Amino acid sequence: MVNFLSEITEKSMGTYLDKRKWLKRYYLDYFPLVSTPFLSYEVLIGVMGISAADLVSFNSSAPEKTRKVLDRLQGSLPAIRVKRTMDENAINQYLVAKATIKNDADMNNLLEMVYGDIDFVVESCQQRCEWIALQALSQTKISLNSSNSAGTVTEEAINFGLPTDNQEVCVDATRYWTVANALTCLPITDIQTIVTEALKKGVKIAHILMNSTKFVDFRSSAEVKDFIYGILVSESGIMPGVSPTLATINKILVESGLPDIRLISTFIDLEDRDHNILSVDPWLDADGKDQFVTFIPEPPLGKMLFGPIAAESIKDPGIIQKKVGHVLCQSVCSQDPVMVSTIGLSNVFVCFNRINEVWSLNTESHTTW
Questions:
Q1: Alpha carbons 281 and 28: distance in angstroms, whole number
Q2: What is the structure's pLDDT at 207?
Q3: For residue 60, what are the contacts with CB-CB under 8 A and spacing of at least 6?
């Protein structure tokens, strides 16, 4: 079957997808895409720390060191699917627009109508990868429920296995990282404590990940201001009257031998089974709370594994398809009823195999992480 949209051919779709510039996302920095020939995976996690060799006398046998037991992270790659449909009314609008083209602007509008759904399904699959990765980074687990998934719903959270010793809380309620506790919270002290704890386990913390709203709490802290401005005042003799900027904070942190701060600031639209769309911050927990700050070594922290898609190897004359990255894009026509469906498919999931090298601080609890 020839596609109802004559602008959609295997060649034109391929050219368009190859040249298209997609939105930049955080997940590729922390979990770069890696192909796997399987739909299941098993990786080793937890190789940390190197004990020093011993000093022995000449002609002595080398003392044997212990081999740390490794944990295994295993699972299956879930299917990510999205579809948008041009019904008969939309196709009629397309035909009218095509018949009345008078200039380049009209042609551009027509191409946006034709390729808009292709853009949507590819970006939609990418957005789900972003949501998965940021939930893993902030919560170290993923919960799929009716609010954030119109497809699979999990009875229990998918837990990546953050070690209990790496789950940190505040000393007491006065130390919560909030604006209300600006005079009593001690974020710099908390950072120094966690960095030292990680270093003792052979991990060098390179970055601190937090949401932009939590950063407002952080920068309002009296200890942060004293730490940052104490150095600046000693150099300039001038006491600033406002909270320090991210650039200023990072400059002082790095010069003091501490990790810098990376802000995670984005929103993702999630659509439920009733097609209600809610714009959410993927860093927040299921209750919409911004509590967790994540301490990480130099990334990447794992992989975004993507596996084979069965439809990719099936040649159907009624389907025009092209793969871009890990997403297979299809344009499928139907006669009864008349419609053109644009489909995005990907078998992909985050593999967090350096979870043992990550620390998480609940900045608003002193009892349970």
A1: 18
A2: 98
A3: none
